[in-house]
Amino acid sequence: xxxxxxxxxxxxxxxxxxxxxxxxxxxxxxxxxxxxxxxxxxxxxxxxxxxxxxxxxxxxxxxxxxxxxxxxxxxxxxxxxxxxxxxxxxxxxxxxxxxxxxxxxxxxxxxxxxxxxxxxxxxxxxxxxxxxxxxxxxxxxxxxxxxxxxxxxxxxxxxxxxxxxxxxxxxxxxxxxxxxxxxxxxxx
Length: 188
Known about the structure:
By secondary structure, the protein is mainly alpha-helical. The protein contains ten helices and no strands. The relative contact order is 0.12.
C-alpha cells in the first residue's frame, strides 16, 4: 500500500503537482496512507463475513490536482500506471530475493506473502474500472468527452467490482493472470 501510493505521489510531483507532498503523502510511511474505512474496517468486515475467503481494502487515495500537471492527459496515464508498476516491481524484487532465502523459513514465508500481495495489488489495480488505476490510464487515452463520460461511472465502480467478484469474473481472468506471473517471478 505504501509503495503504491508513494509511487503515485512521486510521479504526480515529477509531473508538476506538489499537492501530495504538501499534504505529507509523498511518503513511504504507511500511516500517511491509511483510510480508517478502506484500510481497516472494510477488510476486517469482509474477512469476518466471508470466513477469510475474500478480503478487499483500499488506501487513502493520493490527492491529485490535474490543473497543476504539466500535461494532464499524458501525466494521468503515468500517475495511474505508477502504483501498479511499483507493486509489480516489488513482487519481482522479492521473487529475486527468494532465490537466496529458504522459502520455508519464517522470513521466506513472509517475503513470499508480501510478494504475492504486491503482485495481486498491482494486477488488480490495472483493471480499467473507476476508481482503479487502470481507469486512469484509459481516461488519459480517451478523447476528453469520452473520458468524462467514462469517469462518470466512478460512483458505481465499487459496486461493479463487487458484482464481478460475486459472478466469479476475477476467478476467470485476474487470478489466472496472477498465477502465471507468480510462476515467472518465483513466488507461490
